[in-house]
Amino acid sequence: MRQAEPSAQVQGDVEPDRARAPLVLALDVGSSSTRAAIVDRDGRRLRGTLNDIPYKMETTVDGGACLDPAVLLEAICKTVDRSLAAAPEQVSAIAGAGISTFWHSLIGLDASNRPLTPVYTWADIRAAAALPGLRKLLDVDAYHARVGAILHSSYPLAKLAWLAQQEPELAAQVARWCSFGEYLLLELVGKATCSVSMASGTGLFDEVKLCWDDEALAAARVTPERLSEISDHPVSGLRDAYAQRWPALKDIPWFPALGDGACSNLGSGAYGRDRLAVMVGTTGAMRLLWEGEPAAPPPGLWFYRLDARHGLLGGALSAGGNLLDWLRHHLQLPSEDGISTGLSELPPDGHGLTWLPFLAGERSPDWLPDARSTITGLSLDTTPLEILQAGLEAVAFRFGLVHEEIETASPGDRTVIASGNGLLRNPIWMQMVANVLNEPVLASTEAEASLKGAAVMALARLASDGDQASSAVLKELGRVPLDQARHFEPDADAHRIYQKAIKRQQSLARVMAGWG
Prior knowledge:
The protein is an alpha+beta fold. It is built from 18 helices and 21 strands.
């Protein structure tokens, strides 16, 4: 599977008949939708092949947030069908498949690899009940330094311990615990491995030794035999039903699923220590991706991996586009044009509101497992538009706190690159982030960053000349030129106002957490 030297990056889609081989099929399985596209060797999507199928989490009053594996699988298959149908003459040039999936998922399978549980997502906070017991079993600081994760309900470690306590009969029936990405390959190919990337986001993985962590496994009451083998090697040979459905893909290599956050950095152009990604999709994240030695994360941040050679330091917010969608659904807001016009006329933090935007719980930087959304300062004079503004600012404030942590852990001059539809479609929100950070923010030119990142990694791994050739592909396609990117310059006066508002938000967080 030899790949020639990469050519200069070309932005935008390309007509199928002008695409340059090898091509890859790229999948991005998110927590709210699945996307698929065919991508050429220059990182360009073949025009018409991008498809998107949405779905919703199943939520419960007690904090459950799950997905139906059958719904996910059906959505994936339909997106692949549509992508292949959009470029039938190019399908034979597809040389491999790359997959991005949401981190921290957990599903239990029986001995025949059939699901016994739903897909538990990062947003399912019921596992918070297991955290007190885990803190007694593990040295919290040593655990964080070793595995890069925090003891928190969002991770599979906590969910495994919780299920062992609350559903012991169900847990005993499970023959294999895995992420949804592993289950997808089991379904398609009949064999699955857990990528280094996906393992790094479980809370069960030693980030230095690159293997399952014995202490974490013991605390989770699970043995290595009930988890997948860790490997980044591809699998191939579609099962009969899928080989008949997609004959051109029958024997291509399928690379194990990677964490969507790492793929997003790579796909948005935020590759290297001098480029910092800020992303708002369903949720939010701020991340630094580089090739080299791992970094010990400070208390408020995590450390994961793209692969064995690339580290990812950052923080994740449970609020993002989901908060904006909630506001649109529940408030009597004006039209989209009216929202943009109205927000542009409001002064920064002029509403007098303080909001903890924790509708789906809280992660970075405080990692409060029982956090709930709280808003104070409402009056008879408060308008829906002001509530919306306060919500968007509240999320931006959390980015400000994460940014401080990253700068402390890894100081240096760097370019901030924004991605995700939550920001790219909302320039006012982008400006708020720039004002909070007091740094210029550049809008990524790639709207589908995680999908492109999965494609770029597949292209890099198809290079048969070893690590050097793979690195060349990543540098070429993961560091896109920024001269055409839209710039959002910070406003110094707004930054000063927001610094005071962040302190007010943190004071409220401490009160709600019982810290003061």
